Each structure stands twice: as structure tokens, then as C-alpha cells.
Amino acid sequence: MLLLLPLLFACKSDPAAKPGGDELLEDSAAPDGVTPRGDVPQVDAPEPVLKRLTTTQYAHAVRDLFGEEVIVSASLEPDQRVEGLFAVGAARTSISSYGVEKFESAAYSVAGQVMDNPLLRDAIVTCVDGVAADDACARDTLDALGLRAWRRPLDAAELDQLVDISALATERLGTFDAGLTFGIASLLISPHFLYRVELGDRSDTGRYDGFELASRLSFFLWDTIPDDALLDAAANGDLDTDDGLAEQVDRMLDDPRALDGVRALYADMLHLDALDDLSKDPTVFTYMRDTLGASAREETLLGIEALVFEDDGSYLDLYSGQRAFLNRELAALYDVPAPAREGFGEAWLEPDGGRRGFFGQASFLAPNAHVVSTSATKRGIFVREVVLCQEIPDPPANANTAIPEVDADARTMRERLAVHLEVEECASCHRLTDPIGLGFENFDGTGRWRLSENGATIDASGELDGVSFSDAWALGGTIAAHPETPGCMVRTAIQSATGNLVDELSVDLVDWHTLGFTNGGNRVLWMLRDVALSPAFTQVSAVEVAR
Fold first, then answer.
1. Hey, is 29 helix, strand or coil?
2. 456, exposed or middle or buried, with CB in 10 Å at 0-12, 13-18, 19+?
């Protein structure tokens, strides 16, 4: 079976390259009451890295190349989180030999589905199938498809190789379509498809070239490959100018495909993949259903869509808002009237229900709990690490992480967790996490509201970095008002967009973008535009490339 082996790229930094700031980001006079940002800070342009497509990006790319009907294998090599994000892991992980086999199998499956479906086939093969014209037809098809799949024009040698593969397969298998299947599969197994090859324009500008910027923009803002308009802008040199780049960013954020980009960003940030295999003991949590994970994921993403695109509202409302999107399963779990007979409908959550924002949703409460109980520690770690971007050290290797069983003197989770505060090697971390997580104890391990545990009244009061709260409702507002919440969102967006850690770029740049974010009312679309025009996104160390 044909298998194209991954290419190896040797990249060497050019220390002489000193990229400057992006003129678009220089602040003019700030409006009254708004703190001016000043000029954009200097960025230490990182060495380029090859980013593997995530599993969702792979699926979206196949969809946009061939159509919704094509089924992508669910058994691709799994994504890996680095610093909490798949987007960063994609720049740090390679493909195992077994993973290469999975991608090869997926490529032939996709190509076969396309060529076996007359409508899908005719959408990409526009020339007449004839023996004399086979090579020309394959060349035209693979050239056009390759531009979109590889996010750049194919050079003559690359195209010749693909045409030769198709011709050889046609000769052996007897039909043009069978041969072209191998050519299409070769496009999809290539590292130029599986990886985002973004190495810079190889000059002293310190900037990605137009096609690389088109790829970076499309995967950041749409979570998929560039469209024809974006590729045309790259070919015409429009993305080489600040004004041309801004024009495309504005167009993309105004496009419905921006929904996919925002959903992907927050699904990654909020670890919604943990809902895919959500498991609970049904004898303990009688409201648990196999469909809860999928329902909870969609609730969160629908709420984010409404917040970002309908309201253009403050990101902080994600944690303090009262609007929810529920189906009948979630309405039953939350003990509120179902807003729609079928599917999801909009609901308004009242304070006396105790449930507010993302932290009142099953997508946070259920995966950050154990199979048979809640977990104040896991919930507290999530708040610290994901929402506030604070680091919690791993427990010592020999630490006893077990908590006592329920007894007459320790019926609530608060009482049982007290044991961790008696051992200093445990207490140093648990003091940071447990007082937060205990604020969510009115929600059980699936997210259902309760007032007592094992017959004892639950105390959900606590303290977060010097601010006291009385219950989960107050805690949601406390997290929304925390001074580090906006900056953490900006930090996450920059790392997701670039695949680089902010420490590799510029901490000052994060502060600068955060100031703009807060000045602009913490609006997500504003922030995405700001990041897409940032030198952290457009600049790269110049490299010498050997293939």
C-alpha cells in the first residue's frame, strides 16, 4: 500500500532578525475613562514550529474540501494537551508509527468515499475522463485540490509526483477514478496536509508569508482551512500589508464560520472533551444518562455563541450570567421547566436556584467530580488553572490522596477534606483549591442541586484570594470580578492562536492585549481581532530550511 513518509524540516534561527510591532495596534488617544495602551511591546519572535492538525481541524478540513457527507474515522491519533490546550500540544507532539497508519487508512477512506459518490466526484473532477486526457485531468484536479488541502500552491515537482502516482495506479487498477483515488489519498497523507507548515517568508522581514498567514488565520478564527477568498488574498499579496490583513480578519469574524472557531477555542479551553466519555455510578446518581455529556457540551457552547455573537457581550458574563440553553434532559437535572419540547431552548435561571453561569453547568460540575462523589479539589484546580491561569503543583509522589470514608463525625465533603489540611505537604496546595471547590458543594457529581449531604447541611461558603463568598451563586460573581480572569482569557487566546507559550513571546504583550480587552468591555470578538493582528501572531524568527 502506498505510504508517503513524513518530511523532516531542519530550522535554524536567524538571530539578526528583529521584527517590529504592528502599526495597526498602536493606540491613538484613548476615549475618556479608558486607560491608553501605548505602543505595542516588543515581541521575541519564536522559532517556527510545525503544528499538527487537531482531530476537529482534520474533520473540518475534510468537510470543507469534499462536503458534509464524507465520514472521517473517529480512531485518529488522539490530541495531546500541553499547558492545558490541545492547540499548544499540536505544536509539541509528533505522530507515532501507529498514528501514521491511522491517518493513511483515513486518507484512503475519504478519497474512496469521494470518488464513489458521483456528486462529490464531479465537484472536484471537472474535466472529461478519457484515456488520452487522463494525466491532464488528474493534474488539473490535484492542482486545484492541493491548493486548498495544503493551503498553498503546489510546486511543479510536487504536482508531478502526485500525477505520477495517479497514473501508475490507473495503469495497475484499470480505471481513471481508481487511480485518482490514490492521488487524492496522497494529498491527505502528506505532512503538508497533516501539519501546518508555517516557517516564515525566509527573508529578513520576520513575518509569515501570505499563504502561511492565511492558514494561521483560518485555523484560529474558523478552525479549518482557508476559503478561496483568503487564498486569493494571499496570492495577491494582500496579507503582506497591515491593512490587507485587517480587512480579511474583519471579513472572517463577520462570517458564520467564526462560530466554529469560537466553539473550538472554548471547547479546548474549558476541556469539554472530558464530556465525551463521562461516566458516573447510576446507583449513586440516578439522574445520570449516557447522553448527559453531549447535552452538557452543547449547553455551554450555545451559551458562548449567544454571548459572543448575539450580544457581543462581556466575556465575564460567562461566569456570572443567568441565561441558559437547556434541553429536556438538562432541565430535569436542574429541576427547572423545560424551555422547549424538543432540542434546546433559552431559559433564565433565578438566584434562588443557586445556579449561575458556566460554574452552574453540568459541563463543569460533572467531569470535575468523581464517579461516586463530588471533588472540591478537582473543581478548585479547574478554577485556578483554567480560568485564572495559576499553576497548582502536582502532589508529591508518595502523597496519600485518599479522603476518609463518611462517618458520624465527617458526613460532608468539607469535613472529610479537613484531613488534607492537617498534613503540611498536602495543605500548601489544598488551601489554594479546596476553599474554592467547596463553594460548589451544593451541586452533586452530575450537577444536580442539593442542600444536604448524608443528612448534614452543606456549608458552601469560602474565600478566593481574600474575597469571601457565601455560596456558588456568589462565587460565580467573585470569579468574574477576579482581576486575573480577563488576562487569563487573553493568555489562552494567544497560546491557542500561535501554538506558543506566552513566556516564549512576551509577558508584556499579554498585559498590553489584556488592557485593550478590558478597555473594550471584555468583548471576545474584539479580543480575537486584536490577537489576530498582533505581532505575536504575524511575526516569526527567520529560518534557513533544509528539506
1. coil
2. middle
In eight-state DSSP terms, residue 539 is B
Neighbouring residues of 268: CB distance < 8 A, sequence distance ≥ 6: 85, 86, 87, 496
pLDDT for 462-516, tens place per residue? 999 999 999 999 999 999 999 999 999 999 999 999 999 988 888 789 999 999 9
Helices (H), 190-227: 191-194, 210-221
What sign for the dihedral angle of Cα 214, 215, 220, 221?
positive
Verdict on whether the full-model pTM lies above 0.85: yes
Instruction: Output phi, psi for 11, to 5 deg.
Output: -115, 135
Grid cell for residue 245: 490583513
**DSSP label at residue 311:** S
Contact of 265 with 85, CB cutoff 8 Å: no
Q: What is the pLDDT of residues 371-395, one digit of tens each?
A: 999 999 999 999 999 999 999 887 7
| Bridge-based pairing state of the strands 51-52 and 195-196 | antiparallel
Nearest to 391 by CA among 486, 461, 488: 488
Residue 85's φ and ψ, nearest 5 degrees, are -130, 135
Q: What is the mean pLDDT of residues 363-370?
A: 97
Type of residue at 98 = Y
